[in-house]
């Protein structure tokens, strides 16, 4: 059973979002067709970097906690991670949109994005020789810049902050067991519990890209109708 650790974490991550997708109020299952295209595009971008990070020793995977099936050097479970986590986070986003009417003021959300862009550029310049750090803080400002004027930006930040709860559970398990082993020579070496600080911003870029595509394909369908 030990070899199924990462696979079980993936299954548990997606189990409740899938089951609750058929709830008649949120009706998340009806929006699935808007999820897959963006998830495929975003997944390809992040899986490219995942392969590069693995090749260059940014992180590695404990052979004791994976089933051993690999593609391009990545465990099957790691590839599934870029499907299960975005799906679960999009479910959180959809639930908050339905149940919570309050959102961050648009100016506050925009200013937060600008502050994150500045912070990212500074950190990528300081840690230019740390591959995980420089890629994370070079990618995030690009994503933030193209979403500055989006109407859903305030709701994104709400979803992101709520998603930090399962984030700490899932990433906490992956880094404490450990299933994923990080090379501190390729990151800032700062951790919150056992989770590298970069993971928080890498996750933000991943979630923001998925939501951007989700909203884009949803809007395009409405216009076509």
Spatial gap, N to C terminus: 49 Å
H-E order: HHEEEHHHHEEEH
Strand order of the largest sheet: 1-4
Q: Sum up the overall morphology in one term.
A: globular
The stretches of 5 or more residues where confidence is low (pLDDT under 50) are none
Topology of this structure?
Elements: H1 5-20, H2 32-55, E1 59-61, E2 70-71, E3 74-75, H3 76-99, H4 106-126, H5 131-146, H6 153-176, E4 180-182, E5 191-192, E6 195-196, H7 197-224
Antiparallel strand pairs: 1-4, 2-3, 5-6
Helix pairs in contact: 1-3, 2-3, 2-7, 3-6, 3-7, 4-5, 5-7, 6-7
Descriptive terms for the model:
225 residues, mainly alpha, two-stranded antiparallel ribbon, 6 strands, globular
Task: Note down, in words, how this protein is organized.
The chain has 225 residues and is mainly alpha-helical. The chain is built from 7 helices and 6 strands; from the N terminus they run ααβββααααβββα. A two-stranded antiparallel sheet has the order 1-4. It has a two-stranded antiparallel sheet with strand order 2-3. A two-stranded antiparallel sheet has the order 5-6. A hairpin with a 2-residue loop joins β5 and β6. α2 crosses α3, α2 runs antiparallel to α7 and α3 packs across α7. The longest helix has 28 residues. It starts with a helix and ends with a helix. The mean pLDDT is 95.
């Amino acid at each position: 059973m030990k070899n199924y650790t990462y696979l079980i974490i993936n299954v548990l991550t997606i189990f409740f979002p899938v089951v609750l997708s058929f709830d008649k109020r949120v009706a998340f299952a009806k929006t699935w067709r808007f999820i897959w295209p963006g998830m495929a595009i975003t997944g390809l971008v992040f899986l490219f970097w995942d392969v590069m990070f693995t090749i260059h020793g940014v992180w590695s995977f404990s052979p004791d906690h994976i089933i051993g099936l690999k593609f391009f050097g990545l465990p099957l479970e790691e590839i599934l991670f870029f499907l299960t986590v975005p799906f679960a986070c999009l479910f959180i986003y959809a639930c908050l949109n339905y149940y919570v009417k309050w959102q961050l003021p648009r100016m506050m959300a925009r200013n937060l994005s600008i502050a994150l862009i500045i912070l990212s550029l500074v950190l990528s310049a300081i840690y230019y020789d740390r591959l995980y750090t420089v890629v994370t803080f070079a990618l995030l400002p690009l994503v933030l810049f193209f979403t500055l004027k989006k109407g859903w930006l305030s709701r994104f930040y709400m979803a992101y902050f709520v998603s930090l709860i399962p984030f700490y559970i899932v990433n906490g398990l992956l880094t404490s067991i450990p299933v994923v082993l990080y090379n501190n020579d390729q990151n800032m070496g700062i951790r919150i519990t056992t989770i590298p600080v970069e993971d928080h911003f890498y996750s933000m870029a991943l979630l923001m890209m998925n939501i951007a595509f989700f909203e884009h394909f949803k809007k395009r369908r409405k216009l076509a109708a």
